[in-house]
Amino acid sequence: MEFKDYYATLGVEQGASDDDIRHAYRKLARKYHPDVSKEPDAEQRMRDVNEAYQVLKDPEKRTAYDNLAAGVSSGGDFRPPPDWDSGFEFRGASPHDDAAFSEFFSSLFGARHRPGGAQMRARGEDHHAAIEIDLEDALHGATRDISLRSIGHDENGQPRLQTRTLSVRIPAGIREGQFIRLAGQGMPGLGGGENGDLYLEVRLKPHPRYRVEGRDLYMDLPVAPWEAALGATVRAPTPHGPVEVGVPANSRNGRKLRLKGKGIPGDPAGDFYLVLEIAWPPADTEKAKAAYRHLAQEVPFDPRRNLGD
Amino acid sequence: MKTVAVTATLVGKEQPLSTGELARACGAEEAWVLQLVRVGIIEASGRQADWCFDSAALRQALAARDLQRDFDASLDAAALILDMSNEIRRLRARLRVLGLDADGR
Questions:
Q1: Full-model pTM
Q2: Has the ipTM of the complex gone over 0.90?
Q3: Every domain of chain A and the residues it spans
Q4: Of A199, A219, A221, which Cα lies nearest the Cα of A208?
Q5: CATH number attached to the domain at A211-301
Q6: Which residues of A touch B89 (CB under 8 A)?
């Protein structure tokens, strides 16, 4: 297990005041905010920062941590940490999201989060995770296995990490940012209380060909200049199979052709847009050059006529 | 390792969250959800006694909770931040559709 230097994570001295720690945390929370940050690993960094802050803002946890840190020689006997990023992500870091944190955190503080006393009856807390799916899954529905890690307890009552795999049916028509709710898959209840629920926030993986906006899909469709100028019927691949589409005569670059209802299914279903992209044949042979020269001679055309002078 | 098959429901029009469920999902009290509705951070459908919330409301509520927790933001400030954040996301999605990223490439 890796020893985590929480002070270094927040960039503060070991003797930092609560105020310093809070300010350092807020600065980093802004820096790695998903809407603002350009760093590719912002999400992981934010998770580390959250974990460090959960410990250092709490006087009890901080003291326990300081005591432990005092006994650690650098490069000590900690095993390397497991890969925390594979297959799942937790966001945020309220006490409800402890499972997002490292083994180091869990083994130190995992047990303290369980209110003791067998007489107490309480519903388990709800948990949150994100699930990344392919656009095809949103279009057609799919069943996906997800692995989740949570803090459980062994026979001696020691906290330890557990991995479980859930098989989740993803309904067709799901969109980015929607939540799938898995009843009873959150934190276990106490004293016979109900389990909490698990909420999965859906994220769409970027697609190499299609762009997504809400339920609508966009795809660039390359056309030859004469197809755009004269009109043509061309074949285009769509997620629902190839279609023949009519390109109207005198189409300009960027013109959108709409295939109604061919986007992500739903009520109403999204549309599929083909964005025309005129591709010019290269003038790299004598024949091609002659054809361009011929066009220039035969067709009076000044693309800069509106620029004045 | 054994795989567990579980019932998944999509949080939406057909299977919305109640006020209590939304509060619990955010680790908060029902009174807090009431405040979110009053400030306009989330929208409820139905009568107040059996309000219904969709995925968008859950996302907004979780984000508001984070802003309060991380920055001690007031709900009014959180509402403004969320409005701007949603606008940024909308504009970025537009840019992506146009084949651009936020830096104009």
A1: 0.76
A2: no
A3: 1-80, 83-113+122-206, 211-301
A4: A219
A5: 2.60.260.20
A6: 35
